[in-house]
């Protein structure tokens, strides 16, 4: 569908959006863990913005092919936490929260550049923030699923009783469950539907805000 300059714009915007979403997701985990008393991620060099420190080959390929993926999990030592359950939950949800915030901010910037900026700048930045919005929201939705090593599973495991059957089953079959998830998600489009619903809500919010602002402007 693209050629020449348009193709270059799409590739640059997509790669930047993908890498920034994955890297900041993992850095958020490590940063919150550090604030909760665990410096493991810091000592492992995982608070870096260097993509090589974070990207998982299989997770990146899955994202390119299926639209969903992941980075290498940040190493965490829960024995360093000052409050185990609270810290484990905060560390688990940090990546999802970061992606949703980035997606929300990107939706604002996308709305602004689409509606108020023309020319090359409008085309480039609207494309960039469109990809940033889409990828960040998809990562948040995907990582919320209760399948290891995703964040949704870690949140459940934090509050589960010892030897919980669901937790043990998922840990023992995590590779199989991930493969099943990728196949089902690609076949049904369910995660895409959830992503698009959230994106529509974000963009609808800014439409209401800007419509209200225009109504208040003096004639």
Q: Which class of secondary structure composition applies to the elements?
A: mainly alpha
Overall shape: it is: globular
The helix/strand order is HHHHHHHHH
Mean of all residue-level pLDDT scores = 87
What's the total number of strands? 0
Poorly predicted residue ranges: 215-219
Strand content: under 5%
The radius of gyration is: 19 Å
- Count of domain modules: 1
Helix content: over 70%
Distance between the termini: 43 Å
Largest sheet: none
Tally the helices: what do you get? 9
Write a structural description.
The chain is globular and about 60 Å long. 32% of the residues are buried. It is mainly alpha-helical and 219 residues long. The N and C termini lie far apart (43 Å). Helices cover 74% and strands 0% of the residues.
Short précis:
The chain is mainly alpha-helical.
Keywords:
9 helices; single chain; 219 residues; disordered C terminus; 74% helix; mainly alpha; globular
Q: How is this fold's topology laid out?
A:
Elements: H1 4-35, H2 40-43, H3 57-66, H4 84-116, H5 119-143, H6 151-159, H7 165-172, H8 174-188, H9 190-216
């Amino acid at each position: 569908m693209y050629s020449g300059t348009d193709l270059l714009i799409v590739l640059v915007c997509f790669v930047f959006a993908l890498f920034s979403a994955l890297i900041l997701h993992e850095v958020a985990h490590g940063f919150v863990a550090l604030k909760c008393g665990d410096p493991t991620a810091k000592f492992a060099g995982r608070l870096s913005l260097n993509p090589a420190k974070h990207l998982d080959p299989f997770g990146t390929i899955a994202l390119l092919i299926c639209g969903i993926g992941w980075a290498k999990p940040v190493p965490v030592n829960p024995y360093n936490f000052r409050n185990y359950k609270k810290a484990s939950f905060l560390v688990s949800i940090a990546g999802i929260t970061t992606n949703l915030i980035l997606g929300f901010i990107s939706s604002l910037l996308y709305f602004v550049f689409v509606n108020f900026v023309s020319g090359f700048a409008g085309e480039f930045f609207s494309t960039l923030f469109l990809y940033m919005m889409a990828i960040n929201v998809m990562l948040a939705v995907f990582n919320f699923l209760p399948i290891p090593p995703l964040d949704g599973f870690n949140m459940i495991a934090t509050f589960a009783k010892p030897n919980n059957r669901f937790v043990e089953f998922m840990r023992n079959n995590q590779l199989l469950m991930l493969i099943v998830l990728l196949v089902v998600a690609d076949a049904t489009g369910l995660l895409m539907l959830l992503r698009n619903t959230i994106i529509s809500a974000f963009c609808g919010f800014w439409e209401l805000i800007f419509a209200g602002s225009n109504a208040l402007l003096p004639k």
